[in-house]
Amino acid sequence: MVEAASLLLAGHYWLVGRTNRIIREPETDFYAPFDSNHAVIVALWHGEHFLIPFLGRKGKREGKRDRFIPLTTYHRDGEILARAGVRLGIEKFLRGAGDHGGEFLRKKALQAFSGMMRELKSGGNVVVTADVPKVARVAGLGVVTLAKYSQCPIVPLAMATTRTHRLSNWDRTCINLPFGRMGVARGDEIRVGRDADEATLETARLQVESALNEVTKRAHALAGSEKL
After folding, report:
1. In the predicted model, is pLDDT for residue 103 greater than 50?
2. What percent of the chain lies above the pLDDT cut of 70?
3. Is the pTM of this model over 0.70?
4. Is 228 a member of any domain?
5. How far is residue 172's CA from residue 165's CA, in Å, rounded to a whole number?
6. By the 8 A CB rule, do 127 and 159 touch?
7. CA distances for 2 relative to 16, 53, 76, angstroms
8. Would you state the pLDDT for residue 1?
9. Is 199 inside any structural domain?
10. Which tens digit of pLDDT belongs to each residue from 187-226?
């Protein structure tokens, strides 16, 4: 069942990638943060993450600068997504999820955090959804804490297509459809100092939240999507 679902998902998104014309913003230096930093933390909203296989430069692999390693859950949905992503060219997925209280260890958040730190140290760009678990479009402290300890910048990102279908779940998951445009919008780097205290982390969290809302609007405007 999982294998069949991953095959269908990969086939669908292969068609999406082949039939949507990509428009990036900024147009001239979209990849500047990836080229000028050892590694970055790509942050986006949950439910807007299925287009990540099309983030890299087509036919261009300069060292590890186009290496994107997404974090996904251990749940069945995460397994389907990971298998589909591998079929679409993503080399590796990290597994785990963050949460609060007693759920933190159950979801192996510590293991995921350590894995992301290792990947960033080795030069891989880590891709994470910034939302508080089960609370859409509210950034959690996880992404800014990762930036603090890794000393890698956060790059807010959003990707959208002209034609979409929204599910009615907690994050209103966006199923992208073929035959249109794909808008990809990047925000400015957000850095968190190594000595950041709780107040500074909260300020950075709000900055990430605001930046993600802005790039999401821009990506959907580039794509001409009406279902933001």
Report:
1. no
2. 90
3. yes
4. no
5. 9
6. no
7. 21, 19, 7
8. 86
9. yes
10. 999 999 999 999 999 999 999 999 999 999 999 999 998 6
Question: Other CB atoms closer than 10 Å to residue 168's CB: what's the count?
Answer: 6
CA 183 to chain CA centroid, Å, is 15
Could you tell me if residue 202 is inside a domain? yes
Query: Is 192 a member of any domain?
Result: yes
Q: Is 85 a residue whose pLDDT tops 70?
A: yes
Cα dist. 180→57, 152, 175, 223 in Å?
A: 19, 34, 14, 8
Closest by CA to 129, choosing from 151, 159, 101, is: 159
CATH number of the domain that residue 15 is part of:
3.40.1130.10
Tell me how far apart the alpha carbons of residues 21 and 210 are, in angstroms, rounded to a whole number.
27
Q: Domain span at residue 75? A: 2-223
- Six-digit token pair at 130? 């910034």
Q: Burial code of 192-206, b = ≥16 C-beta within 10 A, e = fewer?
A: beeebeeeebeebbe
Number of domains in the chain: 1
